[in-house]
Amino acid sequence: MKRIVPLLLGISALLMGVMSDRAKADVKLHSLFTDGAVLQREKRIPIWGTAREGEQVTVSIQGQKANTTAQNGHWQVNLRPLKAGGPFTMMVKGDNSVEVKNILVGEVFVCSGQSNMEWPLYATENAAPVLAASTDAQLHLFTVPHAMSFYPVTDVNATWQSANPQTTRDFSAVAYFFGRHLRQKLNVPIGLIETAWGGTPAEAWTRREVMLAKPELAWMVKNHDEQKKSYPEQQVTYQRLMEKWTSDAEQAKKDGKPEPKKPDAPGDPLNPWGPSILYNGMIAPLLPYAVRGALWYQGESNAGRAYQYGTLFPEMIKNWREDFEQKDLPFYFVQLAPWRAIDTQPVESDWAELRETQRQTQLTLKNTGMAVITDVGDVEDIHPRKKREVGERLALWALANLFRQPVEFSGPEYKGIEVKDGKAYLTFSHLGGGLTTAPNGGAGNDKLTGFTVAGPDGRYMKAEAQIEGDKVVVWSSAVSFPVAIRFGWSNYPVLNLFNKAGLPASPFRTDDYPFTTKPRD
């Protein structure tokens, strides 16, 4: 008996070792390929994962078979385009077999940004009936958990979920309303990948090499590198100061004296505001998943650097397009909503400047679109609760430009200016049946709000404005010769220029005066 026990223990250890080695060799799929995954229709579909070095891997779905050999522990196959439909089953075989069920093929969008993209459905206007009706077996959701990294990571801890009141509750409201609208209009499966983090700047979502290639952006990366380099020494110094402070605080207590000021801890360079930190942790692991396009709702955290955003934002878009391996990846974003005190006089505004950089990005970068939401802001809350309008206006851009549906997708867009007899005559595209101050079919009036006018001295004054046919006429008794017009140029513009499709006009300016947020050096 004494001899049998060691023998059994030895066999057990041997089996445990074999099982451990086998587990390391098992073919595994990236987390994006779990049950319920939505694959992008009509595009080449990369499928990838990990396996033993040299292991033969075969992927099968809908009559297709693709083979490859694992190298450096990784493998990838590319499936030919599939048509919309499902549910399908995908088989992956190597030394072991993996079956992925309930796969849909349809339209997939990455939905990113800061808190207004992350804002959950349950906390929006009229949420209860929306949640109750949110069950849809053809709408699937994937939420990327918050993750920070100095270097690109390869996977995330998440799974696909079918839309229902439990799964939509905490999902991005903007993304949900976008997806719901597409489902109603296209009648194909929709997959939404939410990857967002409140309060974060655009540089956190941009690849390091992209910013280093632009002098006006490179300084952020270099400053962050210096912070990383000095952080260990700063921690040592902080510990020493804390030890002294603890001793001094105890002595002060004994002496009946006030406690000395506590030393400030050094800033950890691994934080969600650092350049590339969230790109590495929350965008890189999604690559190169096949998607139709991207949604973006962000800008609040960059408003103080609006001038720089005019470079950063387009570079980030081009960065994503390159890394998702789609040169003209459709990229639809939300213009900043009105917020903070209502401005009654012409003022400089960093929020207005950031809206202008967003507008210029949409005008100059191909396959981008901007949802204007000047009518759904909240003067007291940076998180307006009306998210349905936001998501559906993003969906209009996709329906018109991606899926060629005959819908108006933009509010009136400034086109040109002509000055005569002391008045400025403005023309617009996207008239949507005509200009109006009553987008919901009411009587309205021709008097417009939110316009200012400047003469040759460059000083802006409040202006009168009215609709005349398909034009807007702007004037002021204080400006005899208008040279420039601004519309909605404030933190919280109160505006009433729409087209009859019910979409608001974007704030704009006709001048090229320097931004107040432009660095002096």
Write the layout of secondary structure elements.
Blueprint: H1 4-25, E1 28-29, E2 38-40, E3 45-50, E4 56-61, E5 64-69, E6 74-79, E7 85-93, E8 97-113, H2 115-118, H3 127-132, E9 136-143, E10 161-163, H4 165-168, H5 173-186, E11 190-196, H6 208-212, H7 215-255, H8 277-283, E12 293-297, H9 306-323, E13 331-334, H10 350-364, E14 368-371, H11 388-401, E15 413-420, E16 423-429, E17 435-436, E18 451-454, E19 460-462, E20 464-468, E21 471-475, E22 484-487, E23 498-499, E24 508-509
Parallel strand pairs: 2-8, 8-11, 8-12, 9-11, 12-13, 13-14
Antiparallel strand pairs: 1-3, 3-6, 4-5, 4-7, 7-8, 9-10, 15-16, 16-21, 17-23, 18-19, 18-22, 20-21, 22-24
Helix pairs in contact: 5-11, 9-10
